[in-house]
Design a protein that fits this description.
By secondary structure, the protein is of the alpha+beta class. The strands form three sheets. A six-stranded antiparallel β-sheet has the order 7-6-11-10-9-8. β8 and β9 form a beta hairpin. α2 packs antiparallel against α5, α5 packs across α8 and α10 packs antiparallel against α12.
């Protein structure tokens, strides 16, 4: 208010309890970006109001911005040179502030050209730059150098001082500091909307960081399928391997037992008659075309009378000392032992019986290593089969999960559009499945919301016209 009391004029102004923005920046270095942008939004809205009344401030700087005590609200002060008609007063104000003010001048103001609302927005850009980085965009040592920088030099990018700063904030400040007014924001309303969007973007990013990490469906389903198929295949292949291994051992032992019994029966009469020459020939014939390790015939006195290993003939039979009994089929004893020359062996020992009398022993050696190699091949085949099966299952699971994930992304994006107030948004996709039904329901919901909004707008306009008419 203004008035007179006892012929003395007075001006009534708001009492501001707080501190200038430059002091606040010095006293509170650890501010959040959202707090700084909140100040920028208030600056933009306040200047938009002033500009709408035809007032250009021309001296926006931190010392002319008061942060109200106990809040993050700000007030723009010192409109002293905005509408001062006395040139002397203007010159005094400018001379008194010339050391501080030039750093916030727009290029057109520094060149003495006509200034408008966009010049104030340039100054807001300088203030925002200082809020975000803690530095002024231009800091010449003299006024001449400073004005030359303002009119000809581009400031260092914001992210050079603050790595990781929001890209939208960086672009807003860069646009505010354009040399050409036409390339800046054209009014405070545009700027405040851009800053509000940037704050919302930062808020969403903070929420995403604070929220527990959500594993995408396609990844989750793929891992679940891999786990299920892998466990199933491991159990199945282990059981199958054991069965196959047992079957191989059984076949090998049964074959060896049958062979050694047959040889014992065929050689019984010759052993009884001590026809050792015949036994030599018999053993050589038995070894022909077979993959036996050895074949030896021992008489009742423990002397080797025939053997595929010639050096042992006529020598006492050397009992196996490191063998391990693995089974017995009928009267055939089977043991496994390690041989220095031929690795592991299976020894089949059967009695030579003639007329129900035990007249000797026959030993048949079968190499164990080929059985191990066969078992290894079975294992490798099963592992390869498991890998191929798991890979195929994971690809199928990923494809199926993607078929579900993509429609969910579409639906989420659609809800975000509605949340932003875009009730005219439609999915407009035709699908012959449950998602198609959901998409259709969403479009019908959006149609209803849009219709309700239009009805509310029409009703509000009618009420306003009626109120104007009644007032008239």
């Amino acid at each position: 208010d203004i008035g007179e009391v006892n012929d003395r004029p007075y001006i009534v102004m708001e009492l501001l309890e707080g501190e200038p923005l430059d002091e606040y920046m010095r006293s509170t270095p650890s501010r959040s970006l959202r707090e700084d942008l909140a100040i920028g939004i208030q600056l933009a809205k306040a200047l938009h109001y002033a500009h709408s009344k035809g007032i250009v401030h021309r001296d926006i700087k931190p010392s002319n911005i008061i942060r109200v005590k106990g809040s993050n609200n700000i007030k723009i002060t010192d409109f002293g040179i905005a509408h001062v008609e006395d040139p002397e007063l203007t010159r005094q104000t400018q001379m008194g502030e010339v050391l501080g003010t030039p750093q916030y001048m727009s290029p057109e103001q520094a060149l003495g050209r006509k200034v408008d609302a966009r010049s104030d927005l340039y100054s807001v850009g300088v203030v925002l730059y200082q809020l975000v980085t803690g530095k002024k965009p231009f800091e010449g040592t003299t006024i001449a150098t400073l004005l030359l920088q303002i009119t000809t030099t581009e400031p260092a990018p914001v992210d050079q001082y603050v790595p990781g700063v929001s890209r939208s904030v960086k672009l807003i400040i860069e646009r505010l500091l354009k040399k050409d007014p036409e390339r800046r924001f054209q009014n405070g309303g545009e700027l405040s909307n851009a800053l509000i969007d940037a704050v919302e973007e930062i808020r969403q990013e903070e929420m995403q960081r604070e929220m527990p990490k959500v594993l995408p469906i396609r990844v989750k389903w793929t891992f679940i399928m891999i786990a299920i198929v892998s466990i199933t295949m491991i159990i199945g292949t282990t059981w199958l391997y054991k069965r196959q291994y047992a079957s191989i051992i059984q076949q090998a032992t049964e074959y060896g037992s049958s062979m050694v019994r047959f040889m014992a029966a065929e050689s019984a009469e010759k052993v009884f008659n001590e026809d050792w020459i015949f036994l030599e020939v018999f053993i050589q014939d038995a070894m022909t075309g077979q993959r036996f390790g050895y074949l030896s015939l021992v008489d009742s006195r423990g002397i080797v009378r025939g053997s595929s290993i010639v050096d042992k003939i006529g020598q006492p039979y050397q009992q196996i000392t490191n063998g391990k009994q693995i089974g017995k089929i009928g009267d055939v004893s089977i043991q496994r032992y390690d041989d220095a020359k031929s690795s592991s062996m299976l020894d089949f020992e059967a009695p030579v019986i003639f007329r129900e009398k035990d007249i000797g022993r026959i030993h048949l050696g079968v190499q164990w290593d080929p059985l191990e190699q066969l078992s290894t091949q079975i294992v490798l085949t099963m592992v390869l089969l498991m890998i191929v099966t798991v890979a195929a299952a994971s690809v199928v699971a990923y494809a199926l999960a993607s078929a579900i994930s993509n429609p969910l992304k579409t639906l989420r994006k659609s809800f975000e559009e509605i949340k932003k107030g875009n009730s005219g948004y439609r999915i407009a996709q035709t699908r012959k499945d449950e998602f198609g039904e959901v998409f259709q329901s969403f479009d019908e919901m959006a149609e209803t919301l849009q219709r309700n909004n239009e009805n509310m707008t029409d009703t509000h306009a009618q009420d306003k016209n009626k109120a104007t008419h009644d007032h008239g």
